[in-house]
UniProtKB/TrEMBL annotation:
It comes from Streptomyces caeruleatus. It comes from the Bacteria. Its EC number is 2.4.1.25. The lineage of its organism: Bacteria, Bacillati, Actinomycetota, Actinomycetes, Kitasatosporales. This is 4-alpha-glucanotransferase. It catalyses: Transfers a segment of a (1->4)-alpha-D-glucan to a new position in an acceptor, which may be glucose or a (1->4)-alpha-D-glucan.
């Protein structure tokens, strides 16, 4: 077989475009790049299209043209709710009969205004019949009714003296209750709480989960499970022994003697929770569990089955015995019956975790938080995890999500996560996407969507190839965004899109028009944009519809940025690509430019320091939401994550600490002087406070 040439021919290019595969793209520097033919062939193969030879590509193109010509309906149709549901893209015969089966029951005409929902479109034209999902989606997502502020945290890092070695959902409820009541905060934004794979965690990143559909039970506070109170005898002794070992570990973390050890925490909690699981449920509790299992349906069945099978065969499902790799096979059904108690245990774990998530959100609302919890939806999942097993029919095999080469990473990025297949997702009516969005929004006032640009296109990297040899694959953005808006409408939550980095022209504008808030980070807000930096962006030119903050979990803390310690750290780890003197000079110039802007605005000198002054700058912006990275509030100088350094830096394992690197327990935050100084920037009565009469207005459209 003759391999394809590096330059695609006309048939291959047309075939690729027909499947949403980009044949060329523009770099962040404006250069136009033609995608190699072998990349297109690999990506098409992952979409179930054979283009391995020129003849195969021409045949596949002919098949596609014929199918398009005879198709009555698209795989999935989308209309705006409340307006007549005409679909001009449909080319139906004149005698076609069209009806809509509504999600809640009943029927409607396509020409009538449709309620929001996932309906079904039916067409009959002579002897031909067709049906397709019809999504009727809101025009806009709910937005916060007034300006507000809150803490941005990674939950594992916020430990109390009652924790089991890492921050948990009881700690989250306490943080929300305290900051909402005492500091008039409106929200707490979290990193992902998604379920991770069992066993050793070579990369403990919460952004590479096993499942985005369910939260990890290692976040549970064991003592808050109602059945814990009824433990007796040997079971009580065993659970108390786990708690004692966990408290020893917790004390060592809080004394700075060791890092957060998720594996140990999870092992201790699982051991304890197995004993709690054996406590008989009361009739009311049993009914609540049954309701949860019924509500979560097949998704929970698959997740719990994967967990039970992984306990037996290991977490790499691609190496499981034949028949177990397909979640819908008879052998999996038989294995589920054999492992019924283990499956039930994992369903119970999902239930008690959901209960504590609900309790944390309720604690936030009880103290008057307008938003409460802001959960985080990771961009993808681990290729050997529960979701990749259960949803393999909707994911592209032997492909990984990443990013093309740019100034941030000249080699490009490979995130090691399989992307959605656009065709399979549409054929499913986007139900898998809706399910995980619904789960993320259930106990939240807002949802942060990581790499929100993925609703429009994703960079696919073929297995075994460098990231530079990938290409963009487009999705039906109206449908993807529509599903997001529909689920937000149902849950009555706001949406924050993480739109940092390379963003295709027009994407931010489309998101803003639909009410999705953006993300603005001080380190990236400069005059000049892609044409070069020409000084800090003045506060009045920041976007209105966005969450504004100084830094993120992937960037240096503000204290480290101000001192230049972030350059020192990268130099020690051998990460600099230029002489250290050049890096330091550039970092100093960047910092000095911002300090000069603060002086211009009269925010410096400030008796409480430069970190406080920078947060006062945020209050001068029109941004709807203002976020404070919790380590900034304690003076921490260590980054929670230094991308690309899993082997040399303790990513995702650091407790929140003070300026000297001493861990700060949650119990001590209320009396911490730096925390109090920052809180005064946002609380009522201050000169730049967010909670003033002037801010009690609905946000307008994005301004910049």
């Amino acid at each position: 077989m003759k391999p394809p040439t590096s330059t695609p021919d006309a048939s291959l290019r047309e075939l690729a475009r027909a499947h949403g595969v980009s044949t060329e793209y523009t770099t962040d520097r404006g250069h136009r790049i033609t995608v190699a033919a072998d990349t297109l062939v690999s990506v098409l193969a992952a979409c179930g299209v054979d283009a391995s030879t020129p003849d195969a590509a021409r045949h596949a193109l002919a098949v596609r043209r014929t199918a398009d010509a005879h198709r009555l309906l698209p795989a999935c149709a989308v209309v705006r709710a409340g307006s007549p549901g005409s679909l001009p893209s449909l080319r139906l015969p004149p005698d076609a009969e069209v009806r809509v089966a509504l999600e809640g029951g009943g029927e409607a005409a396509l020409t009538a205004p449709l309620p929001p929902g996932a309906h079904v479109l039916h067409v009959r034209a002579g002897a031909r019949r067709a049906s397709a999902p019809l999504l009727s989606v809101p025009d806009r997502v709910p937005v916060p009714e007034r300006r507000g502020w809150g803490f941005l945290i990674q939950l594992y890092s916020v430990l109390s003296r009652r924790s089991w070695g890492m921050g948990d959902l009881a700690d989250l409820a306490e943080l929300a209750a305290w900051s909402g009541r005492e500091l008039a905060a409106d929200f707490v934004q979290l990193g992902p709480l998604h379920a991770v794979e069992p066993g050793p965690l070579p990369d403990p990143s919460p952004y590479r989960p096993s499942s985005r559909r369910f939260a990890d039970p290692m976040h549970v506070r064991v003592e808050d499970v109602p059945e814990y109170r009824y433990l007796a005898g040997e079971a009580r002794w065993a659970v108390d022994a786990c708690a004692a070992r966990a408290r020893v570990l917790n004390g060592r973390v809080l004394r700075g003697e060791t890092l957060i050890d998720r594996e140990s925490v999870r092992a201790l909690k699982h051991q304890a929770l197995r004993h709690v699981y054996e406590v008989p449920l009361t009739p009311g509790r049993r009914a609540a569990l049954q309701d949860f299992v019924a509500r979560e349906g097949e998704d929970l069945t698959h997740f719990a089955t994967w967990c039970a099978l992984a306990d037996v065969h290991g977490r790499s499902w691609r190496s499981w015995p034949d028949g177990l790799r397909d979640p819908r096979s008879p052998r999996v059904a038989a294995a589920r019956a054999e492992l019924a108690d283990e499956v039930a245990f994992h369903q119970w774990l999902a239930w008690i975790t959901d209960e504590q998530l609900a309790a944390a959100q309720q604690a936030a609302k009880d103290v008057g938080m307008d938003i409460g919890l802001v959960h985080d939806l990771a961009v993808g999942v681990a290729p050997e995890g529960a979701d990749a097993w259960a949803l393999q029919h909707c994911l592209a095999d032997r492909m990984s999500v990443g990013a093309p080469p740019d100034d941030f990473n000249p080699l490009g990025q490979d995130w090691g996560q399989p992307p959605w297949r656009p065709d399979a997702l549409a054929a499913e009516g986007y139900r898998p996407l809706a399910g995980l969005l619904r789960a993320g929004m259930r106990h939240a006032g807002a949802l942060r969507v990581d790499h929100v640009m993925g609703l429009f296109r994703l960079w696919w990297v073929p297995e075994g190839r460098p990231p530079a040899e990938g290409t963009y694959v487009r999705y039906d953005a109206e449908a993807m965004l529509g599903v997001l808006l529909l689920e937000a409408h149902r849950a009555k939550v706001a949406v924050i899109g993480e739109d940092l980095g390379t963003v295709e022209r027009g994407v931010r504008e489309q998101l803003a028009a639909r009410g999705v808030l953006g993300t603005s980070v001080q380190r990236f807000e400069y005059l000049g944009g892609s044409e070069g930096r020409h000084g800090p962006l003045p506060p009045e030119r920041w976007r209105t519809n966005c969450l504004a903050t100084l830094t993120t979990h992937d960037l240096p803390t503000t204290a480290a940025w101000l001192t230049g310690e972030h350059v020192d750290l990268r130099a020690r780890l051998g990460l600099l690509t230029r002489p250290e003197s050049e890096e330091k000079a550039e970092a100093a110039a960047e910092r000095d430019g911002w300090l000069a802007e603060l002086r211009r605005l009269g925010l410096l000198p400030d008796a409480e320091g430069e970190v406080v002054a920078l947060h006062r700058f945020l209050t001068r912006t029109p941004s709807t939401l203002l976020g404070v990275w919790l380590p900034d509030a304690t003076g921490d100088r260590r980054p929670q994550n230094l991308p690309g350094t899993a082997d040399v830096h303790p990513n995702w394992r650091l407790p929140v600490a003070d300026r000297h690197g001493r861990p700060v327990p949650l119990d001590d935050l209320a009396g911490h002087p730096d925390v109090q100084a920052l809180a005064r920037v946002f609380t009522a009565g201050g000169p730049n406070a967010t909670k003033t009469e002037e801010r009690d207005v609905r946000p307008g459209p994005c301004s910049g």
